[in-house]
Amino acid sequence: MKCESSYFRLQLEECTGILVLGSSLQVMSGYRYAWYAKLEGKPVYIVNIGPTRADNFADMRISAPVTEVVSMDIVDFQFRKIDKDRSIDMWRDHL
């Protein structure tokens, strides 16, 4: 696990942010990656239907099925803030 963690830390230095797709981040390794990214000042974006452990520090959270978000025409998709907690609830808005 230590080798894997070291590899991730090196990769984190190269990236501009973290995108979490379809995970509650209940497993420590996934949560740790999001947490380290935030500590490094990198943005954390989350797409998940339910709540995640990183919601309180995510820069943006979209509540929608991952397949709907990743299949959207990116040109037509506009990130919009619906409320103060940086959440977008596309799932609820389209029911």
TrEMBL record:
What range(s) does the Deacetylase sirtuin-type domain occupy?
1-95
Keyword NAD found: yes
State the UniProt keywords alphabetically: NAD
Top-rank taxon of the source lineage equals Eukaryota
Q: Which SUPFAM superfamilies match?
A: DHS-like NAD/FAD-binding domain
- Protein name (database record): Deacetylase sirtuin-type domain-containing protein
Tell me the organism's taxonomic lineage.
Answer: Eukaryota, Metazoa, Ecdysozoa, Nematoda, Chromadorea
